[in-house]
Amino acid sequence: MNDDILQEIGATFAYGAVGIALMALGYLVVEVTTPGRLGKQIWTEGNRGAALLLAAKLLGIGAIVTTAIVTSDSDLSEGLIDTAVFGACGIVLMIVAYFLLDVTTPGKLGATLVNADGAGTAIHPAGWVVAAADLGVAAIVAGAVS
To answer: Using one digit for the tens of pLDDT, what is the confidence trace for 92-128?
Structure first.
C-alpha cells in the first residue's frame, strides 16, 4: 500500500471515531430528555416513539458530521476539530429546539413522546414534530458548515 492510501484509511477511522462519539452524545441527550431507560424502551418494549426520537437525532447528527467532513480543510487535525465543533453545535441547537418545544406544549414532552399509548406501540403526533425539528436543525447546521 502506498502512503496516500494509508493516510486515507487513518483519516477514515479518525473521522469515524469523531462521528460515533457525537452520535453517542446524541444518544445520551435522548436518554436524558426522555423518562425511563432508552435502550429498554426501544429494544425490549418496542417503543416506536422513543425509536423515532433516537433515529431522527442520529440521522441529524450524521448529516452534520458528513457535511463537516466533506467541507473540511485538507489538514486532518483541523478537519477533525471542525467536525467535532460543528457536530457539538448541532447537538446543542437540537437540545435548544427540544426545550423550546417542551415549554410551548402541554405536559412534559419527553413523557408524552415515549408514552403515547402506554405500551409504546403508537407514535404520538408530537414525536413527528420533534423528529422534524431535529432534522431541520441538522439541515440548518449542515448548511452553515458548507
So the answer is: 999 999 999 999 988 888 888 887 555 556 788 888 9
Which amino acid is it at 129?
V
CB neighbours of residue 77 within 10 Å? 9
Report how far residue 67's alpha carbon sits from residue 38's, in angstroms, rounded to the nearest whole number: 28
Give Cα separations from 146 to 63, 86, 132 (angstroms).
12, 11, 21
C-alpha 63/C-alpha 134 separation (Å) is 11
Give the separation between CA 112 and CA 81, rounded to whole angstroms.
36
C-alpha cell, 16: 469515524
Distance CA 82, CA 66 (A): 11
- Rounded CA-CA distance 83/81 in Å is 5
pTM of structure:
0.86
Query: 50 near 113, Cβ under 8 Å?
Result: yes
